[in-house]
Specification:
about 25% helix; globular; about 475 residues; 13 helices; six-stranded mixed β-sheet; binds adenosine monophosphate
């Protein structure tokens, strides 16, 4: 059963009802392109779709291409049921009101499939990741560890990360276990005003989401001179969290940012930064450096980094290599794909990320393997260039890409969105790098755009950016 819905109570009900009746809850990302949507619904063999009323017009267009779908349940009440040309459509609340409250829940094998989520790469068809009841429970217990989410009954959690992306980082399962309040923000996931109002009225203590969401919130707070009084912590992941966001949360709002890393394939928790102010052996002057890393693997996750020959690299914080991960909630293969290069027989999953791990086990992503900039055979971390660019007060967003260069094979180019009203030149941006990194890492040029393209899960779409600027260093 596919769901295409925002973070709301009906989607939450479906999260439990579908797997517990023995079906599979396939959460669908509405930001996929039409062809990808058709692919995932058909590949998953979805038989029913539970959809938010906002998506009814979309499915009216797609319905003819969705082979196995028998009907639609619109997640609303009778008063808000839209007119639609879709066939075999039901109203969620009306269906429920016609049933008794009794249901004989089946006893299921813990290894039975519970839910399904497709990754949203920039190339090729999305790949399906199946979660079992067992892996979801183990992931939830791991997430609840004190040095991880540390959720308590008195918390109030706001997952701004969507429920259609990697189970909203497991919070819909974790919050009910400890009995804390869960606030589901509905469709306006990146609206600073909506988020602030919810946090303020509902006394949110912990919020979680990708960096772009927090940029919107922090901008709104600045513009309206507001302070987050009740929020204590945020969990930021999905993309590297710029230190400018961590500083703003800490210095203006007294909120600690837990930087975390994970993937759809890891359910998604992979590494997590504990509260560093309260962590044995962490000195005050180390905190700023450590928080920029993506954190430590919780119990349940094993990490290793390997070089090009597959040999394991030391945990010294300097050697970097392909990050591999293993554990009971790391997927062992993709749905209906016989073989994947990323999975090996020992259960190690090749993340496609390049990372270092230091002696204390803190992992730092230096890049996506395919985004590393290779200048004259040496690697430059695009994430580090972006991080430095984003520290400039007039830079709103930055992408560093490697593009063809006649002499060095590839050289970095910086593509920038300047803050509204800022007067910023390429020379100023490039001068900003002086003294912060090796000279040969400094991008050869910086160009300005009104906005940068993002993927369906909110990451920079570097493929598209590279395509647009591919000739920048090779033409006059
Ligand atoms: P997804 O499966 O869509 O959640 O994407 C997973 C990918 O997002 C990872 O393989 C990383 O490349 C990236 N990612 C997730 N969290 C972080 C983070 N904190 N810093 C850098 N990259 C991240």
């Amino acid at each position: 059963i596919g769901t295409m819905a925002w973070n709301d109570h009906r989607h939450f009900e479906a999260y439990y009802a579908i797997p517990c009746m023995g079906a599979i809850c396939h959460t669908i990302n509405p930001r996929l392109f039409a062809e990808q949507l058709i692919h995932v619904v058909n590949h998953a063999e979805d038989r029913w779709l539970m959809i938010d009323p906002l998506f009814v017009p979309l499915f009216e267009k797609l319905a003819g291409s969705l082979g196995d779908v028998q009907g639609y349940i619109v997640l609303t009440d009778v008063a808000h049921m839209p007119e639609t040309a879709l066939e075999n459509v039901h109203c969620y609340e009306e269906l429920l009101s016609n049933e008794t409250d009794e249901f004989k829940w089946p006893t299921l094998d813990e290894r039975a499939a519970s839910s399904l989520c497709y990754t949203s790469g920039t190339t090729g068809d999305p790949k399906g990741v199946i979660y079992s009841h067992r892996s979801n429970v183990l992931h939830t217990l791991t997430a609840l560890q004190p040095n991880v989410f540390d959720l308590r009954a008195g918390d109030c959690v706001l997952p701004v990360v969507p429920m259609f992306h990697a189970n909203a980082w497991g919070v819909p399962y974790a919050a009910p276990i400890v009995g804390c309040k869960l606030i589901l923000p509905g469709p306006k996931l990146a609206d600073g005003e909506v988020l602030y109002d919810l946090m303020d009225k509902e006394n949110v203590t912990l919020a979680m989401g990708v960096p772009t969401v927090w940029l919107a919130l922090l901008e709104y707070l600045d513009a309206n001179k507001l302070k987050l009084d009740k929020l204590q912590r945020t969990i930021v992941g999905g993309s590297a969290c710029p230190t400018a966001i961590m500083d703003a949360f800490r210095d203006k709002h007294d909120v600690f940012v837990h930087h975390a890393w994970g993937m759809t394939e890891t359910s998604p928790l992979g590494t997590f930064t504990p509260n560093l102010y309260d962590h044995p052996g962490v000195k005050a002057d180390e905190i700023d450096r450590l928080r920029a890393k993506q954190g430590k693997p919780p119990y349940g996750i094993e990490l290793k980094i390997v070089g090009p020959d597959g040999a394991e690299l030391p945990w010294n914080g300097e050697d970097y290599g392909t990050l591999k991960v293993r554990g009971p909630f790391v997927c062992s293969g993709y749905f209906k794909l016989d073989h994947s290069e990323a999975h090996d027989e020992d259960g190690w999953f090749d993340t496609g990320d390049v990372a270092t791990i230091d002696a204390r086990g803190f992992m730092e992503i230096t890049d996506r393997a395919k985004d590393v900039i290779k200048s004259g055979g040496e690697w430059i971390s695009s994430l580090e260039l972006e991080e430095i660019a984003m520290q400039h007060p007039d830079v709103a967003e930055a992408a560093a890409i490697g593009i063809s260069h006649p002499k060095w094979a590839e050289r970095p180019l910086l593509v920038i969105v300047a803050r509204k009203g800022a007067q910023l030149s390429s020379e100023e941006v490039l001068a900003w790098f002086k003294g912060k990194i090796a000279t040969w890492w400094t991008p050869d040029d910086a160009v300005f755009v009104d906005e940068l393209p993002h993927t369906a899960t909110g990451k920079l779409n570097k493929l598209e950016i590279r395509e647009k600027f591919k000739d920048h260093y090779t033409t006059d």
